[in-house]
Amino acid sequence: MNVSRSHDALSQGADYETLAARFRPIFTEIGREAAERERSRTLPHDAIAALRQAGFGAVRIPVRDGGAGASIAQLAQLLIELAAADSNLPQALRGHFAFVEDWLNVPAGADQRAWFDRFVSGQLVGNAWTEAGDVALGQINTKVARRDGGFVLNGSKYYSTGSLYADWIDVFAQREEDGSDVIVAVATDQPGVLREDDWDGFGQTTTGSGTTLFRDAAVEGRNIIDFSRRFKYQTAFYQLFHVATLAGIAEAARRDAATLVRSRKRIYSHGNAPRVSDDAQIQQVIGEIASWAYGAKAVALQTGEAAQRAYEARFEGDDEAERAANVEAEIASAQAQIVASEFALRAATHLFDALGASAIRAGHALDRHWRNARAVSSHNPLVYKAKIVGDWTINGTEPPFLWQIGNGQERGSN
């Protein structure tokens, strides 16, 4: 069902250069220490704090409500710039912006106003959806239950990205009383929420994607939301963050490769010029990397435009048009993931062909670009994305808008 909303209550775009100018000095400072954070696995608390203070988490909030009124495509463009500085940060903020998006899609009221005020004040939201441990596909062990006139949450989650930096956590759970699926917003400043920094992936190492435990964590009844209310283009929106992150990684590979070639003095006797920067073969390598970065950014922004159309269709009073826009956004995000993953991984590998053996020194930390791109590309298997696009292209089969992960049937079982 569509929701009526006046024009000034929607976030349809701002002047991008003015908006980006607020954050570029912060991005520059974040990028200055990114390689060292990667080498030492230092969590980016200071970087998150700077973004928080500058209002980055509220850029999608309408201007009349204290935000910047940015469109989703503009958010994607900001995320690309941020990812070029440190690709861990867009992923760490992914759950926050999805929670913001959900509140942008609901009817105006006191609850929406309360959350808008929290976002504008700098409060951030983490994510905890994936069940930890040995669970079957679709099994949800995290439960919210009535207790002593209130509600408590119990369970364990993994891949709880961004939760180490958050004031709230957006938790996928079930009501104990009837098994219905809900979203639970849980405040982190309580003893019942235990956040562990145990993410051990070889890439995206500081996203805060480890385990979160809930042990009789207190929850307000108004912060328990039926999952059926969740905004309909959520999967495409979540995947847009991966696409933007990949585009930022490709841009970082372009930047670092060009900078090192420009400053390189040593040449090979069998090269093509007295300076590496004038070597036609090296110029070709850098040109290819720059083109892949350009392509990744282009598909990310195009995907953001499709998601924005889905957002705006929510308020236009045409259910069929809204569904079509949601399908478009989902297919766009799937196609973009395939393309951006290919381009980012190529760029992150090919940059070493423009440089000498010194490029593999740990101090440069250039390997982080490939490791981070590979980690982002592995979150949602690309083979399934390609299948979804192919089935849509051939047969017109609508994509799945939601999916889960868990144990399948063992061999020999029914």
Automatic annotation (TrEMBL):
Coiled coil: none annotated. Residues 28-102 form the Acyl-CoA dehydrogenase/oxidase N-terminal domain. Gene3D superfamilies: Acyl-CoA dehydrogenase/oxidase, N-terminal domain, Butyryl-CoA Dehydrogenase, subunit A, domain 2, Butyryl-CoA Dehydrogenase, subunit A, domain 3. Residues 241-380 form the Acyl-CoA dehydrogenase C-terminal domain. Pfam families: Acyl-CoA_dh_2 (PF08028), Acyl-CoA_dh_M (PF02770), Acyl-CoA_dh_N (PF02771). PANTHER family: FLAVIN-DEPENDENT MONOOXYGENASE, OXYGENASE SUBUNIT HSAA (PTHR48083:SF19), MEDIUM-CHAIN SPECIFIC ACYL-COA DEHYDROGENASE, MITOCHONDRIAL-RELATED (PTHR48083). This is Acyl-CoA dehydrogenase family protein. It comes from Paraburkholderia guartelaensis.
